[in-house]
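Anyone opening a protein record will find just a pair of labelled lines. The record below illustrates this layout.
***
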Amino acid sequence: MMGRRESTRMSIKPILCLSCVLPLLLLGMSMPVVAQVTHVDELQFPPLPALVIPEPERVVLENGMVVLLMEDHELPLVSLTAFIRTGARLEPLDKIGLASLAGTVLRTGGTTKQSGDELDELLEGKAAMIETSIGGSAGRASMSCLTEDFPAMLEVFGDILRTPAFAPEKLKIAKNQMMASIARQNDDPGGIVSREFRKLVYGNASPYTWVPTYATVVSISQQDLVTWHHTYYHPNRIILGLVGDFQKDQAVTLLKKIFGDWQQGPEAKDAETFIQEKSSAGVFYVEKNDMTQAKIAMGHQGIRRDHPDYYSLVIVNQILSGSFGARLFSNIRSKQGLAYDVHGGVGLQWDHPGMAILSMSTKTQTTGKGIDALIAESKKMVSDPPTEDEVANAKASILNSFVFSVDSPSKVLGKYLTYEYYRYPSTWLKDFRKGIEQVTVAQVRAAAKRHLRPQDFAILIVGPREGTRPALTRYQNIQELDIEIPDPPKGT
């Protein structure tokens, strides 16, 4: 019987195949013949469908907390992000590192209800996550969990924001980690370039350039963290974004339950952050003899994103180093072979000027050629200005890639949180494509001339003295920067 079944199946296969193929052959005969193109330019594509970007719903609680909500029921997950109006730029000079420590121990130090270790165990058991941090311009707290655990996890999240314990033993661990980071701060050449170039652009007196020292970290106490929290953590200084599998009305009710009785804080305006008026033009050198290459960075202050030249400079940056066909890659990397990594552009920050910076790594013996090549490319943006084709291609690249920045509700919500935090118009996202499309070639050229000024460049070289000596001797005035790490205070 088995042999007869197998024989039957085998005899049917050719018949089935023929019955499938015949209709396809007949269908092909009835279809019109389309001429094959001979060149890529002859390819024709239908127009892309209109890109519809969802907008979050905005709710303001009675205590001033701003909430942005965006439902997404694809997965049974809920994510929450809070921006807190604080930041390391508000630290006192003698306690640099305070903001970062507060942001870390806010979570690891537990709350008045649960220790940090108990929180770890709870979150692990629920496959949930809660993280906190404070950067230069903002504090952040984030949470993710399963939909079914959202009410319970939101209560924990609220406790962390409202009643942190800042456990002394967790503060000690965080301080030791920061001390270890200070000890290693000169190990990475890239870190040295980033740190020292920022000082040249913004000035040593600017909080945007401050880094912790042993002395400032040692001086930070638990009471300092408590005071920091009492000063900046109030509901009217928080923008909270919620995305995921929830119903808006239920979520708002839950948020009011957790945060509604949190008293509004004072409306005190934070002090302005100092930035020097002009970057420190000149040539600067950091000796680091354990390197086999030289790192070069040059530039000056950039702009804020609300500057009239913003859209033009987005295009300038694309032309300079936005792709492997961009000017810096094509001319310095491909044609001259001076660098594997080379980058450049005008920095565009939300609440303070960015840094216009061109940078590269090169062999020590080509340090001089590398410096000359970067300066030459910045000058060419004026003497050999962007062409119509370059501008058109840059626009197309920016606009075509835009969809990937808004291809999920969480990405969209993240952008709206940023606009809300830095007080930009809520239409900023929708205006972006139109802003890029409307930029003219003349505007791109004018912006490049205004915001890439080689005569104002601060030029920083980090590398071994022996290899970079020929490049350095070309300059009459070169300032050597001292990056020695001060010793810890005695008794620590």
About this structure: Residues 2-30 form the longest helix (29 residues). The first strand starts at residue 57 and ends at 60.
